[in-house]
Amino acid sequence: MIEKNELHTDVLVLGSGPSGFAAAYTAAKNGADVILVEQCGDVGGISTSGMMSHWTGSCGSPLFSEILRRSAQKNEGAFAGEITELIDPEKLKTLYLEMLDEVGCRLMLYTFAMDALCDGDKVCGASVINKTGQYDIDAAVTIDATGDGDIAAKAGAAFVLGRESDHKMQPATLMFKVGGVDTDRAVFLGSFESTYETPNGELQALAKQHLPHPAGHILTYRSTLPGVVTCNMTNATGIDGTNAEDLTRATLTCRRQTEAIVRYLRQFVPGYENCFLLSSASLIGIRETRHFKGRYTLTEQDILEARVFEDYVVKDAFFNFDVHNLTGAGLDAAGVQKHFPQDNGYTIPYRCLLPETKENLLLCGRNISGTHIAHSNFRVMPICVGIGEAAGTAAAIAAARKCSPSSIPADEIRKHIGI
N or C: which end of the chain has fewer CB within 10 A? Predict the structure, then answer.
């Protein structure tokens, strides 16, 4: 039999990706007792275990600025002391742990969130499981930062899976790094709309021709290490990230593509003639699953108009409509990268973090309330840090006052954050 235990905390954060880390760190920094639950063996989600290349997009989040500043202090070589959007996943893993330790956050790694603990529409915590046993964690406030909203779904919060019209979702990717690159000559193409002509043809067109479907594009990024390039080029379509069988299939599909991608890089891309597979992510990258129904749903029009909401808790969020092709390689017809028309940052209202009918539960990260197209913008990591900072602040205030987060005024959250 599985041993069952009980734990108690002010704030329970489920998932330690950039949004979950931000929520846990901020709540603890604001004086709350915090437990952070993570299924992997490292903190950071896609930014570390997912081997993300860089912080894409931006956000007016003090915590995001702190992460960049403290990461720069750990940089070595050509980037020593330099603030850069490039990510060294190994150093970031350690930085996250150091920061959580500084504020006294309790951390449970190798632990899965199983179920929500509820009293009617009030979420009272979650049941989790690891090698030691099963734990019922009672919490004044629960923050779902699982990306997929696993516990919010278990609690019965309403959601739409994927695109509203047909519930299809953006493809999955397994990031990897290649070594042996002549970075003085190397080509770096950072978007689907970036092209490069060679004597053999244009590189995006050659990728479509020579890579196994649904792979078929080139996205290459510098790293903090000499001769090392991060590749965002594997592709698995028709994947439901809330389904374990699909996650397994996506991992197999992407790993099978890596050899062909390395051959393509060697044969066609300047500077990569002697490259080799160096390392790959231990966590498959899932871009989209559940969009929860909050007390407000952020739309693409809100973003295009750069709306400033009265109850905003995230400001200066900026990115494009990064919709990966739902059926193949490259940019989806609904996506806009290079020609994104909005140059100003937008805001995210607190209501997007509040499930429509549930209390004491906060949505955090890419699972907040937004449309399929709006989500393609706010899902990126800097904006998720800003969302997590807001969620953690609200949770700490609510726990101290023994009230629901829905009763905390947004202007008070902003004041605590300093935005």
Answer: N
